[in-house]
Amino acid sequence: MRQYHDLVTQVLSAGTYEPNRTGIDTVAAFSHHYEVDLGEGFPLLTTKKMDGYRWNSLIHELLWYLSGEAHIRTLREETEIWDAWADDDGTLDTAYGRFWRRFPLPDDHGRLPGESWPDDAHRWTETETAPDGTERRVFDQIQYVLDTLRENPRSRRMVVSAWHPGNAAVSTLPPCHYTFVVNVQAGRLNVHLTQRSGDVALGVPFNLAAYSLFAHALATRTDYEVGAFGHTFVDAQRLARGRRPAGARRRGLRPRPRSPHAVVPGARRPAAHRGRRQAARRTRRRRRPAPRLRPGAGHRVRGRGVTMRVVLVAAVAENGVIGVDGEMPWHYPEDLRRFKETTMGHPVVMGRRTYEAIADRLGGPLPDRTNIVLSRREDLDLPEGAVHAERVEAALDASAEALDPDQAAVYVAGGATVYEQFLDRADELRITEIPEAPGGDAHFPAIGDAWTELDRETHGELAFVTYRRA
Ligand SMILES: NC(=O)c1ccc[n+]([C@@H]2O[C@H](COP(=O)([O-])OP(=O)(O)OC[C@H]3O[C@@H](n4cnc5c(N)ncnc54)[C@H](OP(=O)(O)O)[C@@H]3O)[C@@H](O)[C@H]2O)c1
């Protein structure tokens, strides 16, 4: 793969040192391009590990793009590479596939007189109905390319865009490989990809392999010979290692991955491979004496050398409702994201009914947190990642057991019966105020004079409020 190695050399020699928002500085170079002839072989690097879990992730990510799904609930069954960017419900604030297959079209008010737009009956448009019953019109860019390849292969309009300016302006991860063009010349199908940003060592080998595979799939599907893959970068970079900001180093934080592809190379292995490492961690934890807890000692639970704060985290409607029929009566992705960020890495205590609702939705326990499930059922069968506690004290013991000393907080995630029992023991409440008053059968207990509002942060229609004991 001479072209790829030339690219790396060019970036390292022509690039300039740039501090970066992620905390990992880079060597960056402007405007680079390379091209490979796919007819000469498949461009899978041999100078970098691209096999096993990495190859499996690459294929499933491409299939996921083509599925048009805007969430990762299916994808995460195969790979964790997008997990860092999704909330617990698997929702993302930008998804390539959604724009590839279901690019939003302006409604009647958004169209200017005289402008051309496909009508409702047009073959590439579809009207979708959202869960709240509203309708929206979307355009399938991939079907458009497939049909155009068959009917008008010399078209120079086979452009697929994953970039929506309004979404990109506010998204936490706007698309890096944001547009590609399919082009047919001399009976060969070529694909040209443009990236606004690409890490030549981490992500680019995966982009190269994934889009080459896609070019092969398109060519096979439409009976063309596969041609070339061209790849252009506006900002091509290489991470300058060992430059984490002092604050992050001090707190032992690892910088957030820059893109899902950045996660792949150092990727966490699938569950089967992780087993041994996790088992070792569990063994270490078990050997450490669990802090002795004094349940009932007011709102604070103290252990030997550890003080564990008890934090209740809940989304509460104006009328105190938190749930109906075992579910939450609303869907606010910002709240789910907030919940994930708040609880990540900590033990989380919940009632059996709440656990079951979560497991139904996610296909298992909340990832990367010890789920401590309260239930009086002796025969409760829980998968790895969840721990059964038959009493409140047992749940606190299990939390202390799962606690890393520098975390020192357990999060209590409901439902109603569990909030009720933990309120008197809690040190802090993290309440998302929901601007609705739905009917419900589960309520948050009254927040009385014992509590004082410490912080209030508004986020769109929602308010994130922290209470401490008065
Ligand atoms: N808005 C929010 O932030 C939020 C958060 C979480 C949940 N919710 C909602 O709340 C509702 C669920 O709440 P819920 O009150 O019906 O159920 P829950 O509190 O989630 O679970 C109740 C179950 O937990 C077990 N349990 C509770 N206390 C226990 C104790 N001291 N010892 C042993 N086991 C104990 C029992 O399980 P067994 O029957 O197995 O013994 C009990 O039936 C759902 O609608 C859910 O969507 C909302």
Q: What does this 3D model show about the protein?
A:
The protein is 29% helix and 27% strand. A hairpin with a 5-residue loop joins strand 4 and strand 5. The N and C termini lie far apart (65 Å). The chain has helices at residues 2-14, 53-67, 96-102, 141-151, 165-170, 204-222, 246-251, 260-263, 271-287, 333-343, 352-362, 392-402, 416-422, and strands spanning 16-18, 26-37, 103-104, 125-129, 135-139, 159-161, 177-185, 188-199, 225-239, 301-303, 306-317, 321-323, 348-351, 371-374, 386-389, 409-412, 428-434, 442-443, 451-459, 462-469. Helix 2 (53-67) packs parallel to helix 3. With 470 residues, the protein is an alpha/beta fold.
Describe the structure in brief.
Helix content is 29%, strand content 27%. Helix 2 runs parallel beside helix 3.
Structural key phrases:
470 residues, alpha/beta, Thymidylate Synthase, Chain A, Dihydrofolate Reductase, subunit A, 2 domains, 9-stranded mixed sheet
Q: Indicate the proportion of strand residues.
A: 25-35%
Oligomer: single chain
Q: Do you know the CATH architecture of the largest domain?
A: 2-Layer Sandwich
- Please give the largest β-sheet: 9 strands, mixed
- Poorly predicted runs: 241-299
Number of helices: 13
Mean pLDDT: 84
Q: Would you count the extended β strands for me?
A: 20
Q: How many domains comprise the coordinates?
A: 2
Distance between the termini: 65 Å
Query: What is the CATH C level class of the largest domain, in words?
Result: Alpha Beta
At the fourth level of CATH, the homologous superfamily of the largest domain is Thymidylate synthase/dCMP hydroxymethylase domain
The shape, in one word, is globular
Structural class: alpha/beta
**Helix fraction by DSSP (H/I, runs of at least 4):** 25-40%
Radius of gyration: 26 Å
Briefly note the CATH topology name of the largest domain: Thymidylate Synthase, Chain A
Bound molecules: NADP nicotinamide-adenine-dinucleotide phosphate
